[in-house]
Amino acid sequence: MSEELIELEEEEYTSQLTAPILKRILSLLRPHWKWVVGFLVTIMLTSVLDAYFTYLSKQIVDTGITLKDKPALMRIALIYGVFQILQAGFVFAFIYLAGVLGERVQYDLRKLLFNHLQDLSLSYYAQNAVGRLIARVTSDTGRVSELLTWGVVDTTWAIMNITTSVIFMALINWRLALIVSTIIPIMVYIAVQFRKHILVQYRISRRTNSKITGAFNENFQGVRVVKALLREDENTKEFQELTSKMYHASYRAAWLSALFLPTVQIIAAVALGLIVGYGGTQITLGVMTIGGIQAFVSYLTFMMWPIQEFARVYAEMQHSIASAERIFKLVDTPAEVHDRPGAIDAQTLMGEIEFDHVNFYYEDRKPVLQDFTLKVQPGEMIALVGPTGGGKSTIVNLLCRFYEPRDGVIRINGRDYMEYTLASIHSRIGIVLQTPHLFSGSVRDNIRYGRLEAGDEEIIAAAKIAGAHDFIVTLEKGYEQNVGEGGNLLSVGQKQLISLARAVLARPELFIMDEATSSVDTLTEALIQRGMEALMHGRTSFVIAHRLSTIRKANRIVVIENGRIAEQGSHAELLKQRGHYYRLYTQQFRHELENQYGFTDAVGGNTSEVSETSEASGEPMAAD
After folding, report:
1. Is the dihedral of CA 189, 194, 199, 200 positive or negative?
2. What is the pTM of this model?
3. 257 φ, ψ (degrees, to nearest 5)
């Protein structure tokens, strides 16, 4: 994976936590506010009881031990035990409530992202790596849910610990409490400075992690190509560069976090020295007790924990905020192709289809279609041929409204097709692609994907029409055979036949074949051809063909070159013109004969012999 592509795939977020971002993050809790209130209340009660236990310890030392008041000691011990049981219930409650709340938030986020990803246009997927999108739906949603549960737990716990400690210290000795309180701003300032540097390293680490996920996905999907081209060592080297970058960023963050802790401990030691020194003089004056000093030391330790953990907690929170920024970026991405206001149901696609001076480009200043005009009558079979990159697939992508024209209009039944809803167009189109895609599951499930409410008899009937039934019944489990991930347990031809059966079952009004026979053997091609003819009967259809012998029966063959129509007509008409199509057809036919009879260009005169053979056979001039 090139560094340029990686940079394109992953944004780097450097913004701080702002009010709009915080408000939007917290809005995710709105549907679950009862759970939020429940676990916040239980956390606060738990924290108050923690502080009160320290105060009870002071009472035990001062009253029960120093004054040897046994009844008071027993009474304090009973109160202590009751509150411990009560606190145990609060701890169970907030852990349970936080866990459930986290799962609910994560479920909502993943559902939101998945639904939005399905609405996005194909252009978005062309510009974003699959691994990056997977990271958004999995790890990023997990981090945001942790932020809204355990992040809130840590924050609430820290605030309550410091607040209750200061309150109880003031009750014991307000002068000493004031002295100790002056230490807190110093610690917070140090923590803020550390987290600035830690945050930078964590963001580098997170950004690199998305690149690693993308590299994983790309290499796994292309493992056959990697092995065939012996790319293992190069890929390992590139992967090591990514992991090294992530390692060094994570190492620097860990080093800063490790340095932060002893810094805070030194300041805490100074505070302890002040407590012991000032508290000792207060004891000699009879203003404080031994239990009071012990309580101050405990409360100081009580406050130090959230401050000591501040760097770790804040780094994790910032990490989660960066994940939230990426999620919101994705959610806010508008679909380039969407329903217009007032869009109506198309009702049918069986009418006339017209491309009226259509221009289209994927990238600025790189036109793919230029002033493309074509009228197609109902039931007509249109074959699109031409060199690779000429714009054939773009034409059918525009027709399916996966993309929309930059200029010009596409009309269906005399109306701009952008006046129709996307669902009413997509639901009436059947597509069989050059690279068929099957989903994990059985053969039956994959065919039923074309129409989910279809019964078993309809599925079998569709498979028979497509020519897939005969090979399906030879499988070990027949229609219940698992096809594997992406259909990798079947051959390309078998997957193509199942895709065709799926299209037959969908009963489309408009049918599209995008080089569906270019990667299959001659026998499978014949089966697909018969299935195509049955499916296209009475339907408007567009066929992109690599093998020109498969489109002789097309009503019209349109030759596309450089985004324009070079010529069009029937098979016989175009051969008689001896233009672009004639050259493509004779060249391909000559190549097939060379392969059939073992002729090569290296043997002098063989090419001309093939030409003479083809001319003598009359094959290039045949009119079907």
Report:
1. positive
2. 0.70
3. -65, -40
580-610 pLDDT, tens digit per residue, is 888 888 887 776 656 655 555 444 444 444 3
Helix or strand run (H / E) with residue 185: helix 183-221
Neighbours of 380 (CB within 10 A): 16
Gap between the Cα atoms of 33 and 25, Å rounded: 13
Give how far the C-alpha of residue 281 lies from the chain's centroid of Cα atoms, to the nearest Å. Answer: 64
Dig out the tokens for 572 from the structure. Answer: 């016989």
pLDDT at residue 597 in the model: 56
pLDDT for position 193: 78
The pLDDT of residue 208 is 77
Are 493 and 460 in contact by the 8 Å Cβ rule? The answer is no
How far apart CA 301 and CA 176 sit, in angstroms, is 15
Which residue intervals of 513-579 are DSSP H helices? 522-536, 571-577
Which residue has 């004054």 as its token pair? 67
**Cβ atoms < 10 Å from Cβ of 602:** 7
Rounded to 5 degrees, what angle do the CA atoms 612, 618, 623 make? 150
Measure the CA–CA gap between 482 and 475, rounded to whole angstroms.
10
pLDDT of residue 624 exceeding 50: no
For residue range 144-160, list pLDDT tens digits in order: 988 888 888 888 888 88
Q: Which amino acid is at 482?
A: N
Amino acid at 40: L
pLDDT at 199 over 80: no
Please return the burial class of 266, using the count of CB atoms within 10 Å of its CB with bins 0-12, 13-18 and 19+: exposed
Residue with tokens 């401990």: 265
Positive or negative torsion for Cα 255, 257, 259, 261: negative
Phi, psi (5° rounding) for residue 167? Answer: -65, -50
562: left (phi over 0), alpha (psi -120 to 50) or beta: left
Determine the pLDDT at residue 17.
63
The two three-digit tokens of residue 150, written as one number: 């355990």
- Residues in Cβ contact with 165 at an 8 Å cutoff, skipping those fewer than 6 apart: 51, 299, 300, 302, 303
d(CA 275, CA 183): 12
> Rounded to an integer, what distance in angstroms lies between the CA atom of residue 612 and that of residue 73?
116
Amino acid, res. 308: Q
Burial string for 72-101 (b: 16+ CB within 10 Å, else e) reads ebeebeeeeeebeeebeebeebbbebbeeb
The per-type count for the chain, helices as H runs and strands as E runs, is: 24, 10
- DSSP per-residue string spanning 263-327: HHHHHHHHHHHHHHHHHHHHHHTTSS-HHHHHHHHHHHHHHHHHHHTHHHHHHHHHHHHHHHHHH
Angstrom distance (rounded) from CA 50 to CA 163: 12
Locus of tokens 């709009």: 20
Say if residues 482 and 441 touch (Cβ distance below 8 Å).
yes
Cα dihedral 367, 368, 373, 378, rounded to 10, equals -150
Cα–Cα distance list, 141 to 168, 206, 438 (Å): 40, 14, 28
CA distance 1 to 3: 7
Structure tokens at 270: 């100074």
Contact of 297 with 272, CB cutoff 8 Å: yes
Encode pLDDT of 438-459 as tens digits: 898 999 999 998 888 989 999 9
Type of residue found at 55: Y
- The residues, ordered by sequence, that sit 6+ positions from 605 with a Cβ below 8 Å of its Cβ are none
